Amino acid sequence: MSWTDDRVETLKKMWGEGQSASQIAKELGGVTRNAVIGKVHRLGLSNRATAGAAAKPDAKAKPAPKVEPKVKEAPVRVKPELKTEPAIDPNAVIPSRKQIIPAGQPLPPQPSANEISPEALAKVNEIEKKAKKISLMELTERTCKWPVGDPATEDFWFCGLPVQQGKPYCEAHVGVAFQPMSARRDRRR
Question: Which of 178, 156, 183 is nearest to 167 (CA)?
């Protein structure tokens, strides 16, 4: 649908009479309410007569002046003023659930690491000595996808040993990643 001169005149007339965008769209056919609203704003017709003025039968709507298309100007960017005092007291203790650690910094001990049995950790340490140490691009559905190290450093790799049937990890890493529900429940108490 294109906005012909006749359709634009009908739009201006109905808009001036106080008709809703939905009513205008229905009358014109082939356009949506949003298309009508967009055209009204592009034509500069956004100022409407009040509801009381539109209800008067003898009040004539003035034809809208012909508006030349406006050339868009680049928005003026205003730099925000810099505050000289900090927004938050640097000595204040702010409780948070997550701590943001910059790349390359060692991660703090994870709570789940304390819950893993010493036998499972010993097995994982032994397996990681035998690991293939593969990169992300070398992973397949048959290789253990257990990440080792910090991803932000060069010394980051994946285990790469054969996976346990139906699992994404090798036998040792499955023992760490998937723990029985009763064992987890008992540790919480």
Answer: 178
